[in-house]
Amino acid sequence: MQPKLIKGGHHQDKRGQIHYNNEFDASAIKRIYTIENIDTSLIRAWQGHSIERRWFSAIQGAFQIKLIKIDDWEKPNPKHKSSIFELNEGLDILCVPPGFVSSIQALKKDSKLLAMSDYLLGEVSDEYRFDKNYFTTQ
Fold first, then answer.
1. Which of 52, 59, 73, 71 has the alpha carbon at shortest distance from 119?
2. What distance in Å separates the CA atoms of residue 86 and residue 70, rounded to the nearest whole number?
3. Is 80 exceeded by the pLDDT of residue 43?
4. pLDDT tier at 8 (50, 70, 90 boundaries)?
5. Is residue 68 part of a domain?
6. Number of folded domains in the chain?
7. Of the candidates 68, 23, 53, 57, which has an alpha carbon nearest to the alpha carbon of residue 118?
8. Containing domain of residue 73, as a range?
9. In this structure, are residues 135 and 68 in contact, taking their beta carbons and an 8 Å threshold?
10. CATH number of the structural domain spanning residue 64
11. Could you tell me which residues are beta bridge partners of residue 75?
12. Banded model confidence at residue 138, pLDDT cuts 50, 70, 90
C-alpha cells in the first residue's frame, strides 16, 4: 500500500465557506492531535510505525511531508528515495499506511497540522525513530 492524498474541497457563497472532504472515511481513527513546529526551519524527522496508519491535514498554513517506506526496521537502507507531499490549509488529507517514516516541516509561520491515528496512545509499542540525517535522500 502506498501513501495517498485524498483531496478535499470547499464551497463559498454569501453566507461564508464550507471546507469538506467527502471521500475520507474516518471510521478507523482512534486518536487525534495537532503538531505545531516552533518555526519553519525545524524538521521533525524521521519517525514512523510498522503497523499504525496515520493521516495528516494542514488545518492552518502549509507543511511539507516526506515519507520513506522502510524495508528493515532494525537497519533500514539509508539511501531510500522519499515521496514528497505538500499540504496546504484546507481539508486535503494525506493517508500514510503502515511501514513508513515521516519528516514534517512547516512551510509557513504558525502552521498547524492535524494528525490522526488508528491506534490509541500506548495501545501498541510501534514507534520507530531515526536520526534526522540517517537517510541520505531527504
1. 52
2. 21
3. yes
4. very high
5. yes
6. 1
7. 53
8. 4-129
9. yes
10. 2.60.120.10
11. none
12. low
* Residue 12 burial (C-beta neighbours within 10 Å; 0-12, 13-18, 19+): exposed
E strands, 1-138, where? 4-6, 9-13, 16-20, 31-35, 43-49, 54-60, 62-69, 83-88, 93-96, 100-106, 112-117, 128-129
> Is residue 138 in some structural domain?
no
Going by pLDDT thresholds of 50, 70 and 90, the confidence category of residue 1 is confident
- Residue 135 falls inside a structural domain: no
Q: Is residue 38 part of a domain?
A: yes
Euclidean distance between CA atoms 39 and 54, whole angstroms: 23
CA 64 to chain centre: 9
